[in-house]
Amino acid sequence: MSSLALDLGSAPTRPGDRRRAAVVAGLLAAGSLAVVPAIERPLGPSYPIFAIVIALSIAAVAITAVLLWAQARVTQSVPLSVLACGYALTAVVMVPYLLCYRGLWPQLIVWLSADQQTAGWLWVEWHVTFVGAIGTYFAVRGSRLEATVSDRAAFVRVQRRLAWAGVALVALTVPPVIWIDGLPELAINGVSTLLLNLVDAALCVGAAAAIAVAFASNRFRTVLDLWLAIACLSILSDVLLQRFSHQFAAGWYASRLTILLAASAVLFVLLFQTAAIYERLAETAERLRNESLTDVLTGLANRRSFEDRFAQVLRECARDRRPVALLAIDVDNFKAYNDTFGHQAGDECLRAVAAALTRSVGRARDHVARTGGEEMAVIMPEADMRGAAIVAERMRAAVQSVALPAGNGAAHRVVTISVGVVAADDPASASVEALVRAADEALYRAKGEGRNRVVEAAGSASA
Q1: Which CATH number does the domain housing residue 413 bear?
Q2: Rounded distance, CA 225 to CA 85, Å?
Q3: Adjacent-strand bridge partners of 126
Q4: Looking at residue 355, what DSSP letter applies?
Q5: Domain residues for 397?
Q6: CA distance 59 to 74
Q7: Same domain for 268 and 308
Q8: Which of 85, 168, 202, 428 is most deeply packed, by most CB within 10 A?
């Protein structure tokens, strides 16, 4: 499935969609033509194969109806609602067709008092319903009916009316076909009557017309149009194969397979679409999560990410009895820089400082974050005071080497940072709040002692 649009009726086709549809259509045509030389060759009766194929077709049509209906509810699409109802009606009519098929369950047919022609007429009915649903979909889509649905409440009313209309249609057509005796004969001793020939011709014309409409309306530019055309092509093949063969002949078995293809064509596309949507939702959720934990200006982790990460690191280090260190960093005289060069330049300054800090981190597991306006922090798992102080000095030197001119009244000629360092050799006896407070106190001392320096927290080993 190449398109991730939620409405399959408006999802544009891509070259891959057209290639797949062309392959399926080619295989269908080639398979149907390959059967022609042996179309009347008897293969012996196999009611279980027939029952399995029709049951799978019913399931495919029913699932397609549910997915189309759900998609219509989300997109408020009247055409999709019509198509979903048509698929649902087809599935409902196929059930008694399977139950009443001659020779499959003779006792059930007797119990239902079904006519000998019942299965044949139910075959006609579900084919007409299926092709008619597709044709009605195209007709509704080409009308202005959808424009009359102004809000969700109105759309729900339309769907409710469609559902009740479907129930009424089934009630008016299926029971009479099952219980009325003396239905017009469709075949006599395996030979089609003129009536069946006319029905077959009408179905072929209807399926071909639906394909033509799908092509003429938008040249198969939507995914749904493309695969509805494949479904109609499968019905066309089904009718022709059955028309020129007999029960349990090679053509008859081939027509069962085309029924399954017609029933499942749109379903496979819907399933691929659903999988693609879930994949995109997972990617979007991950992106939003990352954005929620990232500072937009500097690209560093934000304060929320810092707090979550520090608590996690402290728990892990306490469990494994490993040291942990924290650096509290502040850009010196940043207000003077903003006042001198403006806020846009101030943003560029913070980006430059963040980049220098990131370059100075020697380990992938060290976590650099922006915790406030010009305040930053570095979480260093498995680092003692000596190692953390070395990294802090490297960061201070890296920022100074960027040589950004300082603002008016700054203590130094270039932009610098002050760093407070705290380390806990026994994290189990420390807390996030205590370590942050100790690092901040060391940072304040660094700023009070003239800035552009690293100061270690007193007694940090047991902070």
Answers
A1: 3.30.70.270
A2: 17
A3: none
A4: H
A5: 303-456
A6: 23
A7: no
A8: 85
